[in-house]
Every structure is written in structure tokens, then in C-alpha cells.
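task queued by scheduler; priority normal; single chain, no ligands, no partner chains; default sampling; output format set to C-alpha cells
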Amino acid sequence: MTPEQAATPGDDLPLAQPRSAGELFVTFNRLALQGFGGVLAIAQRELVERQRWLSREQFVEMLALSQVLPGPNVVNLALMFGDRFFGLRGALAALAGMLVVPLVIVVALAAAYAEFSRFAMVSGALRGMGAVAAGLIIATAFKLIGTLRNNRLGLPTASAFSVLTFVMIALLHWPLVWVIVGLGAVAIAIAWRRWR
């Protein structure tokens, strides 16, 4: 099934496609500039709900792959998404959109932070932004949880893997890489067996 033929669940309109690499640059730049504290929630809203370039299931699949690859998740997502539509040119356009203007802003903010970090108001503002970022991630998780129904593992198995991951990382403090390798290998084996 091509990206044009797929549809977002609950919507009978076909998905759109980006018209050019320039449109990818602008969209990913807008996405990056909105994503203070984390771009994941904004990426889902922009690519799935606003632009309608991906269905929720396609977004979750692409996000899952981007999370197991080395590097920042959203940068990996931008590279894969750009490559999907325009090859190397699209990958570079999406990556530039994600990084160029935000890089300038971060350098300016780092210089300002070095100057003003001794003020309690600045450190309090940063703690507040961290809470907002956590809330955005939780909200995105609730939006995307419905895609587990269509997952090859099935809702009960996928939920069990989610709980196991939480327990191993948050409660047992196991290293993330070993949790991904261990549970990921088991999940892939189960999905592959069900797919066959």
C-alpha cells in the first residue's frame, strides 16, 4: 500500500504527500520550533493530524524504528520520512528543517544561560519546562495507544511488553540498551512468528 492509499483511522480521506523537499524543510522547521522540551508530540500532530502525510499506524511504525536506531529519535524520524518521499534530497531537507534554525536558537540560549543561570527564576523556569515536556509525551502516548489494537503482537501482548519495559527501566533501573535488545528480540520473534 502506498502512502497515498492509506488512510488515518476514522477518516475516509486518503493521505496527502509533501509536494516538494522545500515543503518538507518548512514543515520540519515549524515542527522543531514548536517543540521546546520535546518534539515527539508536535511531530505526531504535524505529520498525522495537520499535514495528513502519515496514518497513526505508519507514524508509530516509523517512530518505533527511529527509537532503536542510534541518535535522537526525531532526527531519525525526519531522515526516514524525507527519504520516503524524496530520497536523499528529502532526507537532507527534513534534517535541515529540524536542525538549522533550532541550532542557532540553542547556541543563543546557551550563551544566555551561561550569563543568567545563577538566578533562581531561570532554573525554576527550566524545571517548569521539563514538567510540560513530560506532559506532552504522556499525552502523545495516550493518543497513539489505540494503534496497539492493529499491532501484529495484539493488544494484550503489546501491553505486557509496555509494562515489562516500564518495570525494567523505571523500577529496576536496568540499562536501556539491554532492555531494548532483550525485549525487542523477543517481541520481534513473536511478531515474525504471527506474521508467518
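post-processing summary
- The chain has seven helices and no strands.
- Residues 1-147 form one domain.
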